[in-house]
Amino acid sequence: MFYRIVFLLVFMAGGYVLGIKDGLTYEGVSWGAGVGIFALIADYVFDRIGAGSVIGALAGLSAGILFAKLFFYPIQTFFGNIEGSYVSVIFNMLFGYSGLLLGFKVGRNVTLPGIVQIFKSKVEEENIKILDTSVIIDGRITDVCEVGFMEGTFILPQFILQELQNIADSSDSLRKARGRRGLEVLQKIQKMSNITVRIIDQDFPKIKEVDSKLVALARLLGGKIITNDFNLSKVAQLQGVKVLNFNELANSLKPIVLPGESMNIFIVKEGKEFNQGVGYLDDGTMVVVDNARKLINRKIKAVVTSVLQTTAGRMIFAKLGEDA
To answer: Is residue 115 part of a domain?
Structure first.
């Protein structure tokens, strides 16, 4: 409240100084006070309903009046000179008010970062990537960035940073360790020369879930979401948002194995079904071998029978080779 009073006094003083030159001191003070009050009212309106709503309403009003003029000209051509009638006023009021309401509603989701983003180049828009909590905690993103497979601008919303901080402050030791690792990953990414990390305050108070906020932000900025979350990927894709899923990337980089090929596999444990043994490839792919239960802790030769692709990854089913 104090700074508003000071602001008003400054305008009144400015009006007084300008009025002295023409001998209109009281008029200058009045004009200064009027301008100051108008500025305070505008500040109050912007603070209460948001800058996006005000800009949208003004743009809608202007567009409505423009359409009113475009519709009025044909009528004036057919019915003669009716410029002085109430038809022009009615058209301006009808279209102007409709545009005002429409612009006000559309402008609720418009923010200053979004307005700035409109004037940016399309190439830069396609380079924007929004980080999810899961991919930050996972940590593999640092390796991908270091080898140069990913570059551009990484957007880190405040609500994601807050969620990461809450995980790091958790009383659970495992969650605390995951949260701190995520913070360390962010520090490493910020130091990379080919990556620009930009933290933004954009939030969606009416949306409670973090995943929904990420999708809304990606639609607003026209960026891509980087995540490991399968459900988030599907929800975002349904809403037309591009997703970079690191789990899908890892699965796509796994070597392709065809039925009939042979491989050497170390059996580490028994399988769920009778007489099965389980081993793993170097990339973590699970290999289930029939009749290998008695060969645990031994390296054997197996022949691939089938490959199953699941949401969790790829599974290989095999049988014992002739040598085994």
So the answer is: no
Q: Which residue has the tokens 């603070």?
A: 47
Strand order through the sheet with 195-200: 195-200, 152-157, 128-131, 224-227, 243-245
Contact 300, 310 (CB under 8 A): no
Count of beta carbons in the 10 Å neighbourhood of residue 21 = 9
Which pLDDT tens digit goes with each residue over 89-142?
777 777 777 777 787 777 666 665 655 555 554 445 457 899 999 999 988 899
pLDDT tens digits for 70-94? 777 776 666 655 555 566 677 777 7
Boundaries of domain holding 68: 2-109
| CA–CA distance, 82 with 97 (Å, rounded to integer) | 22
With a threshold of 0.90, does the pTM exceed it? Answer: no
For the chain, the distance separating the N- and C-terminal CA atoms, rounded to the nearest angstrom, is 85
Same domain, 142 and 45: no
**Residue 278 and residue 300: Cα distance in Å, rounded?**
11
Q: Do the domain assignments include residue 231? A: yes
Same domain for 126 and 224, yes or no, is yes
